[in-house]
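Protein chain data
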Amino acid sequence: MLDFDFIKNVYNIKKFHGSTQEEIAVLKQKFGEIPKVLEDFYMKAGNTNEFQYGQDTWIMPKDYFKCAWTADFNEGIILLNENQGVCQAYIRKEDLSLPDPPVYEWSGGYEEPCLCAMSVSEFLMAASAYEAAFTFEYNPEEFYYVECCDIEEFESRLEKYPFKMKWLYDVEIIFYSNDPGNLVAALCESGEEGGLQLIYGAVNEEAYNKLEKALDGICEPF
């Protein structure tokens, strides 16, 4: 389920701007149909400028056919392009008739597509959180790391969100917070016993200080 209040808070969005019916119609013309939850997201927020300030690039309806590589991609609908074009999150064309299908990661056919999120709604929440983590006005200006032995204590101090995603094939990203105005994206490589790499920040000083207090003594610069 999409939580637009959460997305609005972490991106510090004043007002959402949705895609037009015409922009979505062009996408439907190519693919026949798109999942209901994705259409709802586009209609609510598809032309919101704040989405373009993250680490990677959202591929929204208005931009979908401006580049040849997206226009020529026939495996399904691309949602997000990694900042160096290494991989893309997409919905497979055979899943487009589903109301809330899984999202996969594509790497130009060099690897088998892998599951990125169990549903479009989970992906949109997780990817919004991850991208927003790079945009915070209040941030430590460097990455931090939690050792394996401190993860239990780390999790006891914060609330874990019910969504997550995989990105760059081996990296699982989990999200935490202790205030609506702050967020931690915790990255760990799948199958490894190591710690967590943290990307975090807040939209205001009060929320940032609250998060810093919770992290005190259990993380160090990466």
Remarks:
- The first strand starts at residue 57 and ends at 58.
- Helices lie at 4-11, 21-31, 36-45, 68-71, 120-132, 151-157, 205-215.
- The mean pLDDT is 92.
